[in-house]
């Protein structure tokens, strides 16, 4: 079990559930005094539906004294409120926790949240997905105070990262998670020194990142290649974009927009036609071309397109159809 409670620095209560907060939790445990970890209760998971802790809960189970790990069904229960406030934390750090914190819990508490966007752009449940989906050139993290409205608190600090055209949501999630510790530790240090300069969000610039739905993972090959690329990468790993090829369902994992490259037009071919089987180029709307880089056949492991193509029996002509789930 950790000796984090004996370290110097601020007394921190950490609240989180998803893997996004793990790097920051580890950094806090190294630099400050971790007085408690609050996470969601263990839930059934896997084929056997075995009770499984959240990623944060699993880490805490190995590194934090059991008496300092809390898994309330309702964090706003009066008994829970009394217990958590009684820990005497100097600051509460909230990252992807999963329950709304009420006013009775937060009254008089310095509580901050790490959010995976540069607010006020992409408030809401799926900011990383929506940044890729919209074709944003950059994204980042924001540390904000907690507010009644979702992600509407004062901005205490930001980081920035470019979005590579080939990056998926899963990969960008991990990159932003690794960016989190430096930003959160900086904000905590400025809080300790009384050097914070909170900034109000510009409400005229707000965009909303709604929760994803399974039906979002549908494309139309008459769309232009950039739109298809953004959709495929934004929805990887979930819900994923499925298509049909020769009667077989495959999931597109990574694609490249060839718009603007030489020799990428195939006059007379219908949208969805595989123009080059070896390269995996596909005709799309508006005279654009897409190259498929990685796929996952239904029930099988992910494959690079050349490996998939070598073992696949193509019909003539080979046409990819959207709309598969």
3D structure, described in words:
The protein has helices at residues 22-31, 55-63, 78-85, 103-106, 127-133, 169-193, 225-234, 305-310, and strands spanning 11-16, 33-38, 43-45, 50-52, 69-70, 91-95, 111-115, 123-124, 138-139, 142-145, 155-158, 161-162, 208-209, 241-245, 248-257, 274-276, 281-283, 289-297, 303-304, 320-324. It has eight helices and 20 strands. Helix 1 runs parallel beside helix 6 (169-193) and helix 5 runs antiparallel to helix 7 (225-234). By secondary structure, it is α/β, with parallel strands linked by helices.
The biggest beta sheet is recorded as: 7 strands, mixed
Count of helix runs: 8
Compute the number of strand runs: 20
Q: What does the average pLDDT come to?
A: 94
Provide the helix percentage: 10-25%
Gross geometry = elongated
Query: How do the strands of the widest beta sheet line up side by side?
Result: 5-2-1-6-7-10-11
Work out the strand percent: 25-35%
pLDDT < 50 runs, ≥5 residues? 1-6
Instruction: Provide the succession of SSEs.
Output: EHEEEHEHEHEEHEEEEHEHEEEEEEHE
Draw up the topology in text:
Layout: E1 11-16, H1 22-31, E2 33-38, E3 43-45, E4 50-52, H2 55-63, E5 69-70, H3 78-85, E6 91-95, H4 103-106, E7 111-115, E8 123-124, H5 127-133, E9 138-139, E10 142-145, E11 155-158, E12 161-162, H6 169-193, E13 208-209, H7 225-234, E14 241-245, E15 248-257, E16 274-276, E17 281-283, E18 289-297, E19 303-304, H8 305-310, E20 320-324
Parallel strand pairs: 1-2, 1-6, 2-5, 6-7, 8-13
Antiparallel strand pairs: 3-4, 7-10, 9-12, 10-11, 14-15, 14-20, 15-18, 16-17, 17-18, 18-19
Helix pairs in contact: 1-6, 5-7
């Amino acid at each position: 079990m950790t000796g984090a409670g004996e370290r110097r620095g601020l007394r921190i209560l950490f609240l989180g559930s998803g893997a996004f907060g793990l790097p920051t939790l580890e950094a806090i445990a190294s630099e400050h005094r971790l007085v408690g970890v609050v996470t969601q209760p263990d839930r059934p998971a896997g084929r056997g539906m075995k009770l499984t802790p959240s990623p944060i809960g699993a880490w805490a189970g190995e590194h934090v004294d059991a008496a300092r790990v809390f898994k309330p069904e309702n964090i706003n229960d009066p008994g829970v409120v009394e217990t958590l406030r009684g820990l005497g934390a100097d600051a509460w750090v909230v990252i992807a926790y999963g329950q709304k914190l009420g006013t009775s819990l937060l009254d008089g508490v310095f509580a901050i949240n790490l959010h995976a966007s540069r607010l006020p752009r992409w408030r809401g449940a799926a900011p990383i997905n929506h940044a890729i989906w919209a074709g944003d050139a950059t994204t980042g993290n924001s540390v904000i105070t907690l507010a009644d409205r979702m992600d509407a608190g004062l901005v205490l600090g930001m980081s920035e990262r470019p979005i590579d055209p080939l990056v998926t949501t899963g990969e960008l999630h991990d990159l932003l998670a690794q960016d989190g510790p430096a930003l959160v530790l900086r904000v905590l240090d400025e809080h300790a020194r009384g050097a914070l300069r909170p900034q109000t969000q510009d409400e005229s610039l707000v965009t909303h990142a709604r929760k994803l739905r399974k039906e979002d993972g549908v494309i139309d090959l008459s769309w232009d290649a950039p739109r298809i690329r953004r959709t495929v990468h934004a929805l990887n790993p979930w819900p994923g974009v499925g298509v049909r090829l020769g009667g077989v369902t495959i999931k597109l994992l990574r694609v490249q927009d060839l718009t603007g490259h030489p020799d990428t037009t195939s006059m007379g071919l219908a949208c969805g036609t595989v123009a080059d089987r070896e390269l995996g180029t596909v005709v799309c709307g508006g005279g654009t071309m897409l190259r498929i880089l990685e796929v996952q056949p239904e029930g099988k492991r992910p494959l690079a397109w050349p490996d998939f193509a070598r073992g696949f029996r193509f019909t003539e002509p080979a046409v990819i159809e959207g709309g598969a789930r």
